[in-house]
Design a protein that fits this description.
By secondary structure, the protein is an alpha/beta fold. Helices cover about 40% and strands about 20% of the residues.
């Protein structure tokens, strides 16, 4: 078992002020794989003080110096990528193939994207011939990240903060902390100055809320549940710090009558990826009535043929969900769904042959209406709800009838319709015909899916203040 009780503060690994052991559970086996310590107010204060002390010098470093360190960080990340893949697979249950290619790959992809965006990024912009607009680091940033895509979210926050001259405190998810600890090692190996990057493990009450309310923290960037995002916003309000939130989703995947033949199949595969634990998963499949029956059967077939197994296994399969609490929540919602809609695949309990581990059957419900619980709540598991529609207007109305607004999906060969519908969907992202987003594309949502944008130029600007200076030109 791994013992990882120390925190990374001011360039050193330090013991918690007060030891508070917390077991890290391997979701494939339900057995303890590591122990960390949960921090408290004193640990939080120490990390914030280190970040505050480092800010003046770090904020004045040159762009080229920060570029060099980020390039070195990418080298370390790539050199130690197998360690990271193993850590994420063990802590949150991503199968090794997924962990290597997508979980680890997301981190390196975003880091590369930030380096490209940073290349031509200017911190000084002419407003008039005599007035200059300066973009300056906001200050000390608290970065609170989730367990479902650990490196994706840590890199999307830490790297732009570093690039723009901010200092930071990372609080990874206590459920899946091993990747955050390893990333801290990468930062140290890359040679960042002491205090620029700090890491404290802890839960929401012990560290997250303390960071959110801390008077010496200038910004909180949080990814997680909408419920927690609301709590963080309230905690941050007293000090009027900036809050950037990437929260839940309940994405609609609209399959029109002229969609490609395999649209429902690919949509179901996407829904089940990462065991359904993605905020941008297309969990509501809206299908034109002319294609409805075939879509239901196609999605059910995907569910029945999706192999579920331990994260340590090689191969293309989905692993467990992250924890017992998550497993229980999903089971309760599946049970609710069985009383609301027509179950066509999956259902309650573990898949056959798996009697330990937090494994969930890929599940498909048909004849769902948008008023049902399973259509409104973010289940965060491999559960798909299929809803019929008759007209374009009805599809748009159903898609928008949700408190969330992160990612929606459109499947049609009609270019005018695709563009028309995309303009009317109330979400931060609209993916059409399975075409993924480019490197550096802004990631974020409308409504209760949060505010702010991550990735590329937009992600860099998120960590900057805007200063207007008159009389810049020499008289």
């Amino acid at each position: 078992m791994l013992e990882k009780r120390n925190f990374y503060i001011n360039g050193q690994w330090v013991a918690p002020v007060k030891q508070n052991d917390f077991a890290v559970i391997d979701p494939s086996t339900e057995e303890q794989c590591a122990v960390i310590s949960l921090g408290g107010q004193a640990d939080t204060d120490a990390a914030v003080a280190a970040a505050r002390a480092a800010f003046d010098d770090w904020s004045q470093t040159s762009k080229s110096e920060r570029q060099g360190l980020l390039k070195r960080l990418l080298e370390v990340y790539n050199d130690r990528s197998e360690e990271m893949a193993q850590a994420m697979s063990m802590e949150m249950g991503a199968p090794m193939a997924l962990s290597r290619a997508q979980q680890v790959g997301a981190g390196s992809w975003h880091l590369e994207g930030f380096l490209k965006a940073f290349e031509d990024f200017s911190f000084e912009r002419d407003f008039t011939s005599s007035e200059k607009t300066l973009l300056e680091p906001i200050g000390v940033c608290a970065l609170i990240t989730p367990w479902n895509w650990p490196m994706n979210q840590i890199v999307l926050k830490a790297v732009p903060a570093m690039a723009t001259g901010c200092t930071m405190i990372l609080k990874p998810s206590e459920i899946a902390p091993l990747s955050g600890l390893l990333f801290s090692e990468f930062v140290h190996e890359a040679g960042f100055p002491a205090g620029v990057f700090n890491m404290v493990n802890g839960d929401g009450a012990g560290v997250g809320s303390k960071l959110s309310a801390h008077p010496e923290v200038d910004m909180v960037s949080f990814t997680g549940s909408t419920r927690a995002g609301i709590a963080i916003s309230k905690a941050a309000a007293d000090t009027l710090k900036r809050v950037s939130l990437e929260l839940g989703g309940k994405g609609a995947n609209i399959i029109f009558e002229d969609a490609r033949p395999d649209a429902a199949k690919s949509g179901a595969v996407r829904c089940f990826r990462n065991s359904g634990q993605s905020c941008n998963a297309p969990t509501r499949m809206l299908v034109h009535k002319s294609r409805y029956d075939e879509a239901v059967e196609m999605a059910a077939d995907v569910a029945r043929n999706t192999h579920v197994g331990p994260a340590s296994e090689e191969g293309k399969h989905i692993g467990p969900v992250v924890s017992e609490a998550q497993f229980d929540k999903i089971q309760k919602l599946i049970e609710v769904g069985m009383g609301e809609a027509r179950l066509v695949a999956g259902g309650l309990g573990r898949p056959d042959g798996l009697n330990r581990g937090y494994f969930v059957k890929p599940t498909v419900f048909a004849d769902v209406t948008n008023e049902m619980t399973i259509a409104r709540e973010e289940i965060f598991g491999p559960v798909l709800s299929i809803i019929p529609f008759e007209s374009e207007e009805e599809a748009i109305a159903i898609a928008n009838d949700t408190p969330y607004g992160l990612t929606n999906y459109i499947q049609t060969e009609d270019t005018d319709k695709r563009r028309r519908v995309a303009r009317r969907l109330r979400s931060g992202m609209v993916e059409t015909n399975g075409q993924g987003f480019a490197q550096g594309s802004p990631f974020g949502g409308y409504k209760q899916s949060g505010n702010g944008r991550e990735g590329g130029i937009y992600g860099l600007e998120e960590f900057l203040e805007v200063k207007a200076v008159s009389g810049w030109a020499a008289e």
